[in-house]
Amino acid sequence: MCPPGCLHSICENATRRGLLKAGFTLGLGAAAAATLPTVPPAQAAATSFTDTVDLSHALYEGFPTFSGEKWFTVEHLVTFAKDKVNLNRWTIVEHSGTHMDAPIHFSADGLTADMIPISDLIVPVAVINIAARAAENADTSLTPDDIKAWESKNGPLPQGCCVVMNSGWHRLVGDPKFTGNDNKKRNHTPGFHVET
Does the predicted TM-score (pTM) go above 0.70? Predict the structure, then answer.
C-alpha cells in the first residue's frame, strides 16, 4: 500500500520507462495477490498474549550456512537515487537464517509451510535452556528429563505450546563453530533428543 500522494509523486518524478517498469511490477504483484487464499475472520482463532520476543537474526549476504555455501543474495534492480523507488531481487535457500522447518522437510507427504494454519504458529512458548551443556558438548540434546526439570520449576507445559530450546548457539553466528561441521562433513550442533 502507498500512503496518500505517493502515486502522484511517483508520476511527477518518474520517467516513462520507470513508470512502465513500475506498472508491470504492480500488475504482477496484484495478480499474485489475487491468487492467495483468504481466511474469513470467523475462522481465525482468538489469541491473547502478554509479551512478544523477537528470536530472529538479521539476514545478510554471507550469513553462515551448514553447507558453507552462500544461500542468500540481494540484487539491486532499481535504486531510489536513479528511479525514485528501491526494488531488490532476493535469492534465498529456504533454510537460510532464522527459519521454521515445515513438516515436509523430513517427510514425503508432510505439510508445506503455506498449509500450516496460522493458529498453530501463534502459541504459548516454553523456553528450556541447555546452553551450559551445549557449551561443553556440541552434540548434546534436549531430553525428556529437561522437560521434567522445567515442569518441576514452572508447572505443566501449557496446552498446545511450542517448546523452544535455548542452546546458546546464537552467540556463535559469524564464528566457524556455528555450522558445527567437522573435517568429515558431519554436523555437531545441539538438537532435540528423538524421545523428546
Answer: no
